[in-house]
What does this fold into?
Amino acid sequence: MPNGALFVVLIIVGLIGLFFFIVVFKFLGLWIQAMVSGAPVKLSSLVGMWLRKVNTRVMVHSLIQAVKAGIEVSTDQLETHYLAGGNVQRVVQALVSAKYADIELNWKTACAIDRAGRDILEAVQTSVNPKVIDCPNAAQAGKLTIDAVAQDGIQLKARARVTVRANLACLIGGATEDTIVARVGEGIVTTIGSATTHKAVLENPDMISKRVLEKGLDSGTAFEILSIDIADIDVGENIGAKLQADQAESDKRRFQAEAEKRRAMAVAQEQEHTAEAEKNRALVVLAEAEVPKAMAEAFRSGNMGIMDYYRMKNIESDTSMRSSIAKPDGDNPNSPRA
It folds into this structure.
């Protein structure tokens, strides 16, 4: 064999040997750890994970944890969930916690819950150790109490604490804590609003818990409501009296507006009557102005003589005298008192 070809072969063999040395040096510790832990992993599998940019240390530690807890899972399943964007460590820890707590949970369901964006480990822990939710949530809602008004108009301010347990069967697609808080708040408002008096609610605050629980508020959610406890209930404002006062003020303004409208109409009608009277007076003056003209025409046509004119004047004088005599003393300018 020529020296040049031999040199090339030696270089290739050296590179292959160097590659295997690096691989053995890189994964030997994990391989030995998996072997002594009873969860053997092929060296070729570790190399394949490395080439696929999978965190081999996470895969091996998760496999060891699962095997030690008696959970049957393979490296292919772990790698598949990791490549799908799942949190392998949280899923394995959740499966271990569920197994110790005697909660039925398999690998497929746990991966589905994790891929749905839920914290599977927290869900399992909530199933074991129930969680308490404040209603309302001051950090999110921005208020400390749920306000409602009884039928007697008195406002009540209530705070509740809801104890829930995660329902793993409904965790995928189930509503979150915000839905629980909203439904409990609605139930509190409905219960207080249906109470005849606020005293009945203050005497028996447990009536709120009973009626709210009867509504089955946890249906369609990822939780199971264990209890609803009324932490505090206080008396607020007299909303009924305030509303009545506002209504009375509104009625007063409406009546004032209607009275002002009627007054304006009366004034306008009075002005119309005054104008009509002035018009009639003007017509009378015009008619009276026609009398001298008629008399002059009567003189010219011979229908009226001078004696007729004097008799008419005597009648007017007698009429004026009688009218003066008929007036009261205070109105008669010719009377002695006047």
